[in-house]
Write a structure and sequence with these properties.
This is UDP-glucuronate decarboxylase. GO terms for molecular function: identical protein binding; protein heterodimerization activity; UDP-D-apiose synthase activity; UDP-glucuronate decarboxylase activity. Keywords: Cell wall biogenesis/degradation, Cytoplasm, Lyase, NAD. Its EC number is 4.1.1.35. The chain has 388 residues and is α/β, with parallel strands linked by helices. The chain has one domain: 3-Layer(aba) Sandwich (Rossmann fold), CATH 3.40.50. The protein has a seven-stranded parallel beta sheet, with helices on both faces. Bound molecules: nicotinamide-adenine-dinucleotide and uridine-5'-diphosphate-xylopyranose.
């Protein structure tokens, strides 16, 4: 299998060692799965947790890939083993971050440290040791669209020039400092600028990924089941939790914001192309999203309600959604991106990648997984207090 693999220019792909930081998270778990199942590469998986990749690690020695994945439980904030792991690898992929919006305005210091300060040594070790880096940034670095500042009735709001987000042309538009929502985006922007400067001044080989709402199985947690009861995950898990508990889905500020969602399995294909085509990927910033899957958050809720009813066989609630203010839901200092359509020119040109899965299809497979994984545990958790 391995010897037949070629890159986009027809050259054989050599097996490499990848230091993957944040490998135990949502994206990391899917990337590890893909690398183990379809490539000859070795992964040094770094994280503080490994629950989401346990199926790849255990039982020890039992998988065809067992000698190609090692888990290193370490916190990159304070662990001297990090440099050694980066030195052992050909490529480092940094996914580690606090990346749930509920944290940005309530734990801004942790958010800024996690997304900027903690990423600094990773960049430094890569640069000093001549190692390639793929760093995970975010679509949030674009902030708000130019169009959102135009008068509500301006026809220019319909012009893609005013809303499509382009890596090499769009500005990064954040709110004021007291809108602490932007602490995450701002920290990600600064680390992007630092990596870019390491490339320009010191010749570091890098690619920056800007994911546009990747969703799928294993994203975040279900509060009170495999995460804190009071925790607020990203929207897919919030809405899944409401559906599993037969509660109305909460629409923040009426659910008018727009998002494009891409299936995790499509997006992972793009990352694999970056890993295996360094000559095409180095020096670039890549939007990775699905511009065809745009909905308002309200439309997402409506579609998830329909899909969940189909996959669970349960009827939907008579009043399936409820509006909540952002202050009530996220607290003071929240703000939002109005619209996120990725321009796909660069990733198309460099890597020939295109997303395939429609929003309906990706929700169907994801909610089937959510139902199968959590429905019973949620039922028991709901029944418990009544029994006491
Ligand atoms: N999922 C998306 O749609 C999306 C969108 C935009 C950006 N991103 C970015 O992609 C990256 C991965 O996102 P994800 O969705 O997989 O999030 P995730 O929270 O599931 O994964 C992040 C992982 O990093 C680990 N981590 C955090 N701090 C660490 C530390 N100090 N030491 C060791 N491990 C640490 C966490 O334990 C977690 O397993 C993040 O940088 C995020 O900002 C994701
Ligand atoms: O229960 C909920 C949860 C969320 N929402 C809304 O749904 C939208 C999407 O919320 P998400 O939690 O997925 O977070 P966002 O899309 O705003 O940001 C995310 O996207 C890019 C990544 O960098 C991060 O993973 C995260 O910041 C927001 O408008 C939010 O206000 C609800 O209406 N109800």
């Amino acid at each position: 299998m391995a010897s037949a693999r070629v890159d986009l220019d027809g050259n054989p792909i050599k097996a490499m060692t990848i230091c993957m930081i944040g490998a135990g998270g949502f994206i990391g778990s899917h990337l590890c799965e893909k690398l183990m199942a379809e490539t000859p590469h070795t992964v040094l998986a770094v994280d503080v947790y490994n629950d989401k990749i346990k199926h790849l690690l255990e039982p020890a020695g039992s998988h065809p890939w067992s000698d190609r994945i090692q888990f290193h439980r370490l916190n990159i904030k304070h662990d001297s083993r990090l440099e050694g792991l980066i030195k052992m690898a050909d490529l480092t992929i940094n996914l580690a971050a606090i990346c749930t919006p509920a944290d940005y305005n309530t734990r801004p210091l942790d958010t800024i440290y996690s997304n900027f300060i903690d990423a600094l040594p990773v960049v430094k070790y890569c640069s000093e040791n001549g190692k390639r880096l793929i760093h995970f940034s975010t679509c949030e670095v674009y902030g708000k669209t130019i169009g959102s500042f135009l008068p509500k009735d301006s026809p220019l709001r319909q012009d893609p020039e005013y809303y499509v987000l382009k890596e090499d042309a769009s500005p990064c538009i954040f709110g004021s400092i007291e809108k602490q929502r932007w602490s995450y985006a701002c920290a990600k922007q600064l680390i992007e600028r630092l990596i870019y400067a390491e490339g320009a001044e010191n010749g570091m080989e890098f690619s920056i990924v800007r994911p546009f709402n990747w969703i799928g199985p294993r994203m975040d947690f279900i509060p009170g089941i495999d995460g804190p009861s009071e925790g607020v995950p990203r929207v897919l898990a919030c809405f899944s939790n409401n559906l599993l508990r037969h509660e109305p889905l909460k629409l923040v500020d009426g659910g008018q914001s727009q998002r494009t969602f891409v299936y995790i399995k499509d997006a992972i294909e793009a990352v694999l192309l970056m890993i295996e085509n360094p000559a095409r990927a180095n020096g670039h910033i890549f939007n990775v999203g699905n511009p065809n899957n745009e909905v308002t958050v309200r439309q997402l809720a409506e579609m998830m309600i329909q899909v969940y009813s189909k996959v669970s066989g349960e009827p939907s609630l008579e009043v399936p959604t409820v509006d909540v203010s952002s202050q009530e839901f996220y607290g003071v200092g929240y703000d939002d991106s109005d619209k996120r359509i990725p321009d796909m020119t660069i990733i198309n040109r460099q890597l020939g990648w295109n997303p395939k899965t429609s929003l309906w299809d990706l929700l169907e497979s994801t909610l089937t997984y959510q139902h199968r994984t959590y429905a019973e545990a949620v039922k028991q958790a709901i029944a418990k207090p009544a029994a006491n």
